[in-house]
Amino acid sequence: MSKLSSALTIAGTDPSGGAGIQADLKTFQELKTYGMSVITSVVAQNTTGVQNVQHLPVEFIEEQLQSVVSDMPVHAFKTGMIATKDMMQVIRKQMIEQNLPYVMDPVMVATSGDVLIVEEARGYLRDQLVPLATIVTPNIPEAEFLTGLEIQNFDDMKRAAKVIVHDLGATSALIKGGHLEGDATDWLYDGNDFHTFAADRIDTTSTHGTGCTYSAAITAYLGKGYELVEAVGLAKKFITAALKHAYQIGHGNGPTNHWGIREETNEVKNY
Ligand SMILES: Nc1ncnc2c1ncn2[C@@H]1O[C@H](COP(=O)(O)OP(=O)(O)OP(=O)(O)O)[C@@H](O)[C@H]1O
Ligand SMILES: Cc1ncc(COP(=O)(O)O)c(N)n1
Questions:
Q1: Which of 35, 132, 224, 251 is the Cys-Cys partner for 25 at CB 3.0 to 4.6 Å?
Q2: Which Gene3D superfamilies match (predicted)?
């Protein structure tokens, strides 16, 4: 399957290039997807953590969205960091109008531990954005917040995925196991069946932006028309290769490799 496709990410920035909008656009490019972006917050951050944040005015976020959707074809949407309820409201409106594949990464806290969305917006995210998503991609702490469950093993992950679909209303849920011990195993529930995606755990500290990169890859593949399970499988190969071939840069948790994976390995070639 190879056709011209485009994807729009709505998220915060990372000037050090490992997470957020920058990670999403690099991933889209690597997967031969025309990438577009709407910025919600400008974040001063790097591999060591978040130094400062400036939220853009909500009207300006809406203007950016209009600029894109009034002119450009979008085959799939992704949201990442959306810091406030007001921002979520305008994005929600667009998602309803567009009715296209929507990958929702419920970003709450960075790898560094810095909080990326205001406390009182979390409930709105769960109740008003999750139901619109084609796929929600929480890590373990995010899945615990969304479901109120404690997650310690695969059975808990599967239970949480079911709650996100049947109780919260998402079309599917992918619970990522990066925060558990052992292999890096993720569980996808598509409303009927479970699918598991596993990789050997890579011994690396380069995990900044892992979640952003993974969900951007899922978005790119959905935009190309791949079915959900296939899109997640291909994205899992991509994130695993990006972790395995990461450059050791920065003084904290370095970024994954968004560039040249195809040239350096034959692990990611299916797009
Ligand atoms: N050390 C690792 N080795 C292999 N795969 C990993 C490793 N850490 C995370 N992963 C995989 O990376 C993807 C992202 O998972 P994770 O649970 O880390 O998400 P996240 O917490 O949202 O990411 P982030 O680190 O960006 O916050 C998943 O597919 C997970 O299984
Ligand atoms: C703008 C933005 N969005 C998301 C993340 C999460 O990424 P990570 O948890 O890997 O730091 C981040 N650090 N910055």
A1: 35
A2: 3.40.1190.20
pLDDT (0 to 100) of residue 265: 66
Domains of the chain, earliest start first: 6-136+204-259 (3.40.1190.20)
List pLDDT tens digits, range 162-186. Answer: 999 999 999 999 999 999 999 999 9
Q: What is the pLDDT of residue 271?
A: 54
Atom of ligand 2 nearest to the CA of 12: 1
Tokens 């690396």 appear where? Answer: 204
Best of 142, 176, 253 for a ligand 1 pocket test (most atoms within 8 Å of beta carbon): 176
Nearest CA to ligand 2 atom 7: 209
Dihedral angle computed from the Cα positions of residues 70, 30, 179 and 78, in that order, rounded to the nearest 10 degrees: 10
Which ligand approaches the C-alpha of residue 211 most closely?
Answer: 1
| Region label for 77, one of left (φ > 0), alpha (ψ between -120 and 50) or beta (otherwise) | beta
Residues acting as catalytic residues: 176, 207, 209-212
ipTM: 0.96
Residue 72, number of CB atoms within 10 A of its CB: 11
Q: Which atom of ligand 2 is nearest to the CA of 208?
A: 10
pLDDT of residue 36: 98
| Whether the CB of 212 sits within 6 Å of ligand 2 | yes
What is the residue with the minimal CA distance to atom 6 of ligand 2?
110
Q: Which ligand is nearest to the CA of 14?
A: 2
Q: What is the pTM of this model?
A: 0.96
**pLDDT at res. 110:** 85
Residue located via tokens 């909008």: 21
Which positions of the chain have pLDDT values less than 50?
A: 1
